[in-house]
């Protein structure tokens, strides 16, 4: 399980809803009528971007390897 930071914003007055971004995954964003829907959408965007990036890295360098990076 990974912990990432979601920044949730309320929609403009008259529009309603919410939109969110993830600090650790640039380009990932979500939106929804409720905060919960917005965060589900953001979660799916994060998963998609991370998997796409992983596939691209290994496509470009099949000999590359992964390791965990831990920090406090």
Describe the protein's architecture and organization.
The chain is α+β, with helices and mostly antiparallel strands and 72 residues long. Helices cover 36% and strands 19% of the residues. It has 1 helix and 3 strands; from the N terminus they run βββα. A 3-stranded antiparallel sheet has the order 1-2-3.
How many DSSP helices?
A: 1
Count of β-strands: 3
Shape call: elongated
Radius of gyration: 15 Å
Helix and strand succession? EEEH
Poorly predicted regions are: none
Q: Write down the oligomeric state.
A: single chain
Supply the helix-strand structural class: alpha+beta
Helix content: 25-40%
**Beta-strand share of residues:** 15-25%
Biggest β-sheet strands, sense, barrel: 3 strands, antiparallel
Average pLDDT taken over every residue: 93
Strand order of the main beta sheet, please? 1-2-3
Query: How far is it from the N-terminal to the C-terminal residue, by CA?
Result: 16 Å
What's the structural blueprint in terms of helices and strands?
Layout: E1 6-10, E2 18-22, E3 29-32, H1 35-60
Antiparallel strand pairs: 1-2, 2-3
Summarize the structure.
With about 70 residues, the chain is an alpha+beta fold. About 35% of the residues lie in helices and about 20% in strands. It has a 3-stranded antiparallel sheet with strand order 1-2-3.
